[in-house]
Amino acid sequence: SFSFIFLCAFHSQKTGLQFGNATSYLNLEKLGEGTYATVYKGISRINGHLVALKVIHMKTEEGIPFTAIREASLLKGLKHANIVLLHDIIHTRESLTFVFEYVQTDLAQYMIQHPGGLHSYNIRLFMFQLLRGLSYIHSRRILHRDLKPQNLLISYLGELKLADFGLARSKSIPCQTYSAEVVTLWYRPPDVLMGSTDYSTALDIWGAGCIFIEMLQGSPAFPGVADVFEQLLKIWAVSVFLMDILFNF
After folding, report:
1. Which comes out higher in pLDDT, residue 2 or 98?
2. CB atoms inside a 10 Å sphere around CB 171
3. CA angle at 103 for the pair 100 and 8, rounded to the nearest 5°
């Protein structure tokens, strides 16, 4: 409420709360846990706004994961309606915390709540925002490299925001090749599945296409495979079927 925000702002002035300080945020509940980070719903004691706190626990012998460094360096320079906003970074001896704007759900959860495929209006709305967000990062020579419904946040107003840039890569960084171990298997294009490390924005567009199909039919386009070979077989099976339709049309 407005009164709570006012009290938080007043309290922050009285106690000297500021950005970059762990005491400026309160954990409310655990939202999820990933390979190297735990995400909490929190609140800013500075302004009373809800936030998402991505806490990366550092191992003494390894230090800060490189994916976290890469995500922070890229997100600090990205300001767009369809990119999750990074508010603050908190670094302590035990952890590194990214403070993001709080977004209510993600596309994976949204599709679970709306089984059987989404309404055509919502598909158009989400695809427009997804492609607009991709256009923005691609114009800045950045590849997301890990597009999947879990990494597309959806607000209660229907806003879509690209998130989780831990595998993202700037093409302006001098590097002859990129890793083939990118993108969850279901959303990975054939050339990358076969080991190609010479890829560009088409990598993200393939992922967007897979997500488009998933929103249409209510299930993943190429699901449930155990390895790369099975994934390729599923893609080829669909490709051959479509080619037969086109040639016999």
Report:
1. 98
2. 14
3. 60
54 annotated as ligand-binding: yes
Dihedral sign, CA of 236, 237, 240, 243? negative
* Region 142-155 average pLDDT: 92
pLDDT of residue 226: 75
Is the separation of the CB atoms in 87 and 101 below 8 Å?
A: yes
Q: Find where tokens 């989780």 sit.
A: 164
Q: Is pLDDT of 167 > 50?
A: yes
Q: How do the domains of the chain map onto residue ranges?
A: 22-101, 105-247
**Does residue 5 surpass a pLDDT of 50?**
no
Catalytically active residues, by annotation: 146
Residue closest to 43 by CA, chosen among 20, 13, 67, 23: 23
Tell me, rounded to whole angstroms, the distance of Cα 42 from its chain centroid.
19
Note the pLDDT of residue 175: 44
Q: Tell me, which fold does domain 22-101 have in CATH?
A: Phosphorylase Kinase; domain 1 (3.30.200)
105-247: CATH class:
mainly alpha
The beta-strand segments (E) located in the chain are 25-33, 37-44, 50-57, 86-91, 95-101, 105-106, 142-143, 152-154, 160-162, 169-170
Can you give the pLDDT at residue 14? 46
- 68, 36 in Cβ contact below 8 A? yes
- Enter the tokens of residue 1: 């409420």
Which residue matches tokens 């990358």?
192
Q: What is the pLDDT of residue 130?
A: 98
